[in-house]
Amino acid sequence: MSSELSINPGVELRNAQLELHHFRLRLAIAAGFVLIMFLLLACRFFYLQVVRHGELHTLAEANRISIVPVVPNRGIIVDRNGVMLAHNYSAYTLEIQPAKVENLESLIDELATVIEVTPRDRRRFKRLLEESKSIGSLPIRNRLSDEEIARFAANRYRFPGVDINARLFRQYPQGELFSHVVGHIGRINQREMEQFETDGLIANYRGTDYIGKTGLEHNYERYLHGTTGVEEVEVDSGGRPVRTLSRTPPVSGNNLVLNLDARLQEVAYQAFGERRGALVAIDPATGGVLAFVSKPGFDPNLFVDGIDPQNWNELNTSPDRPMVNRALAGTYPPGSTFKPFMALAALTYGRRTPQQAISDPGHFNFGGHVFRDDKVGGHGMVDMYKSIVVSCDTYYYVLANDLGIDAIARFMGLLGFGSRTGIDIAGEAAGVLPSQEWKMRRFRQKWFAGETISVGIGQGYNAYTPLQLAHAITMIANDGVAYRPHIVNYVEDIRTRERAPVEPKPLGTLEVKPEHLAVIQQALIGVNKEGTGARAFAGAEYVSAGKTGTAQVVALKQGEKYVESRVQERHRDHALFIAYAPADNPKIALAVVV
User: Is 2 tagged catalytic?
Assistant: First the structure.
């Protein structure tokens, strides 16, 4: 028994020592692990606090401070007398930030219980959502009333990602009267944003939703837009602004003052009645455009919020084609308005003298084809003056044959036919100035001599814009001197009120003898005194010069007589007129197509 008692205590002592040893070992390992962790933590703190201090400080500030672009006011557009054609007004917009919303459809349904959201609003929002590549907010409702704003404010907590913002909206108080020339704005698309990035302008368009799409709004975008400002705003954890820390104000866009006269524009527009057509009126001494009408027009205000599909479809499917700028892009045979220019070509090339006359039997035979005059039996003996005053077709059939197509094309090219004038809005058509080379390039066919005959009276392949016709008659009115047509008179700096005028840009001088030009000018006066324009100018208090014209839309069979009442309205002849006044010191020259 005694031996067992002596052994047991020894065993217990050795186990305690072993456990103590293990404990100390574990403690040392734990202490080492903790020490290593603290060292790693210290290294991490050093890396974050010292090595990456600048970068992380910027990120922290970004979480606390939001950089918000401040969109500038767009410049206004006025006519020569200060009549407002395009301006801005402020209104509140209900906007949704799609990135912060899980289910857009249910959110919009719930919003509709607080603020009216029409099917049109939904369609427009859906289209904007499809077109937009940004993570910003998109409008679901524009121009909220005070009552609607108050209702939403009381229920805002129910709609995360939805807010009310004050926005500037563009307005065109003259409606369709200036729709084609002033143009309209529209929402920026992805292609345009990429172009801004390529051009290095992307920074100045941060926060901008709308830019000029057509007309002057498009061509003078860089003047009208202005310079975007910046606000540093402190935000809370929910991204809501707390206070403004600093602000660099935006610089408003510059104003455009035009050569156009709103009263003249309205008179011309109303004169068309229900007819389709175009008118361009120019100051011959400067090239300033006084009126620029394309009828029918459209309401540019439809595009400000994003045009709805119904209106868009109506505009694009209308047989009257209201979206076509007829004054700029419509090309038409000039008809008899071509004759004064043909006569000037004949004088310049020595193929006719003013006194040289032909006998007009009422027709001209060429290659077995009979080209008829509009007057049965003809006009008798016709010299150059009479050929213009009474608009004798036969005279110009013979003249065209004598000149030849290439001589005609060469001279008409000097007057600007068949080429763009360079006016300060986009979309100008070049028209068609026929020649042997043109036909071979266009149709891979040679020119036939018989085709020249109808060109002489402004028919055949001839096709020019009303702008080109107006430009050509200004050269006659201004003794052969041509200026580039321009709609903008000057750009006004919004801050300094300094004016940067659009200087008249000479395009050259028509190389013709003054005495030849005088013959044509006297004949154009005769048209409005005793010729085809006399009825319209009876009793006028000033002397004017002009030339009437008619152009076929549908070719007649040989021997067939044109009877307007038997022809479908859209296939009836075009009516044209070119003119300038006063004849001795022209202040206005114009071309009209109806």
Answer: no
